[in-house]
Here is the input.
Amino acid sequence: MATLIDWLKNINHRFWWIIGGLTVLFIASLIFVTHNAMFYQQPIAQIVKITDETQTEVADEHQNQDIVYTQHIVAKLKNGVQKGKALTLTNEYSESRAYHPKLTVGQDVFVSVDSNDSGQLKGDITDVKRDQALLIVSWIFIMVLLAVGKKQGLYAMISLAVNAVIITLAIDMYIATSNISLLLIMSGAVILITVLSLVFISGFQAQTYAAAVSTLLGTFVLLFITMFVLWLTDEQGIRFEEMAFLSRPPQAIFMAGVLIGALGAVMDIGVSMSTSLFSLYEQNNAISNKDLKASGIEIGKDIMGAMTNILFFAYVSGTIPSLLLYLMNDATVGFTFSMNLSLELTRALAGGIGIVLTIPIGLYTTIYFIHRKRVKA
Here is the structure.
């Protein structure tokens, strides 16, 4: 017991100040999102009672069976001129929960309000208010990131927020100015994201420059290779039908997705190569370029397979619902896979090319910067 007390006393007081501050922020933000209905223009109602729930078995022409539940709900408005008044709602959800969720007492929902001939309020549910759940998940992510990464975790969190803002602004710019290609806008965003992320996390040092150069070279080389292959094959086998609802050229949008999707994996390879080789140099300044190359190749072999698999599963996993939807409605396997996997597999293959190419690019780029550091030393 005494040992535990001594250990707690020796912990930096700043650590406890940070933990205390984050705890206060968490509680304050949770209270805010629980009582922030006044800041929404759309009516919000809290479910106070579920009066009845019926169920009906249904089946479609392909004999896919499901159960549809109908909930009759009494809710109380939390904002607007009719705040505090009760209204009746109806919610339908299926056993599969494919569209509407099952609602419970105490949940907040977005509604559209109407009144009947007797003056009683009724309405329709448009969406579920999920900011509490999103806040809790976000705080868990922040706490884990700070606990594991500490100061670097904080930098990574800020960098992630900045990158999200950059991508959002890039998309808004494309929507506002339709005469500029999305691929061109995203190319600028990729350069900005790479430089800001690496400099912010690692600072202005030689290994940061090596990682940034190798990341940008690997990303744009894979982009040009993908564009060349699609041009050479006249885009045969690529199904752009899933983007048919867009009023913009799907090819440019697809290539912009390839660029952004591969950036994370390529950046990870570039950073891993740069950090590992510079660590070897710092431990032994007399290490030869031959040994650095041999070590870099081994490092690349170790991370190449894992990163390629991660990229493949990340892309393909998003198509599972669409695959099930097609197959359950008697679509053929060939048609289902060609419609849903052609774009995702192309993105995964393009990212894999970028990962493989970034290994030698990162290797020789890092050795170049190490050589410069040797000369200055």
Summary: The chain has a mean pLDDT of 81. Residues 181-376 form a domain with the Multidrug efflux transporter AcrB transmembrane fold fold (CATH 1.20.1640). The CA atoms of residues 129 and 185 lie 33 Å apart.
